[in-house]
Amino acid sequence: MNSIYFLRDDLLPFSFGGNKARKAELFFKDILKKKCNCVITYGSKASNHCRIISNYCAKYNLDCQIISPLDEEQKDTNNSYLVKFFGATVTTCKVEDVKVTIQNVINKKKEEGYNTYFIEGGGHGNIGTQAYVNAFSDIIELEEKNNIKFDYIFHASGTGTTQAGLIVGKHINNSNVNIIGISVARNKDRCSKIIYDSVKSYMEEHKIKNNIKLEDINFIDKYVAGGYGKYNEDILNTIKDVLLNYGIPLDTTYTGKAFWGMKEYIKENKIENKNILFIHTGGTPIFFDKLKEIK
Ligand SMILES: *Cc1c(COP(=O)(O)O)cnc(C)c1O
């Protein structure tokens, strides 16, 4: 029998936690250090990322500009409601106009006299990577405290920043753990390359010798269930099962999908008698969006 452990990053204390909270904490250290007073970022207004960025901006009284892709549904969600509540300005545009729109907003804010700071969507970049290099140290500490060794780490992988940080952490700490990112949307070739580039960029900035190969990156795109935000009956049943038996909320877009994908992966690869760590990357407001679908 496998033993499954949870790292509850959903319980990080700021704004319903999650991996975006881990990343944003470091971004805002940098923002405050550089004395910026306007934060510009990209993402769906329903995203965990935009919720946390706009909450931090409200806390520190900074102007918050969010560039969001137009979506046909335009349905309000818990996150999009919170983004509004935190007072962020949301500018929507077509996906193909994202780059120019971001640049226009930056220029406009600079003209207005703001000292601007741009955060890539999802908190991508070396600072975001750093958050999960740090998380890997927490994981090593957990192992030592509990006298266990994890054979596998599974987590939901989106932009790949979380996974890149874990891979760097594994490298720095000479760990043998298998890190498996379960894709929530993107395909393997594209995202493995993005993760590889994130690792490389971080290693270069921190002058760490890098011998990580593209083929060492385990980004599994077999369980995307039709694409970003899509889910199936098995995912809903997984969410129900984990909530009933462990009291842990998983959502349909990220953690529920990844936990289901992990279970399938374990079955298909006949993984037995291993210590497995599942990183709960957050998304509590999304859990409540879909609460009534869990029956
Ligand atoms: C954004 C997000 C992810 C994906 O993280 P990446 O670093 O972009 O790969 C996973 N889980 C949750 C809950 C998220 O909000």
Task: Catalogue the unreliable spans.
Answer: none
State the helix count: 10
- By CATH, the architecture of the largest domain is named 3-Layer(aba) Sandwich
Order of helices and strands: EHEHEHEHEHEHEHEHHEH
Number of domains: 2
> Rg from C-alpha positions?
19 Å
Globally, the shape reads: globular
CATH topology name of the largest domain: Rossmann fold
Structural class: alpha/beta
Q: Report the strand count.
A: 9
How would you characterize the largest beta sheet? Answer: 5 strands, parallel
The share of residues in extended strands comes to 15-25%
Q: Assign a percent range to the helix content.
A: 40-55%
| Alpha-carbon distance between the two ends | 28 Å
What does it look like?
- The protein has helices at 19-33, 48-60, 78-85, 98-111, 126-146, 161-172, 188-205, 233-246, 255-268, 284-289; strands at residues 3-8, 38-42, 63-69, 89-93, 116-119, 152-157, 178-183, 218-220, 275-280.
- With 295 residues, it is an alpha/beta fold.
- It folds into two domains: 3-17 and 125-293, Rossmann fold (3-Layer(aba) Sandwich), CATH 3.40.50.1100; 19-122, 3-Layer(aba) Sandwich (Rossmann fold), CATH 3.40.50.1100.
- Strands 1-9-6-7-8 form a five-stranded parallel sheet.
- Helix 7 links the parallel strand 7 (178-183) and strand 8.
- Helix 1 (19-33) packs across helix 5, helix 5 (126-146) crosses helix 6 (161-172) and helix 6 (161-172) crosses helix 7 (188-205).
- The longest helix is centred in the middle third of the chain and has 21 residues, at 126-146.
- The radius of gyration is 19 Å and the shape is globular.
- The mean pLDDT is 96.
- Bound molecules: pyridoxal-5'-phosphate.
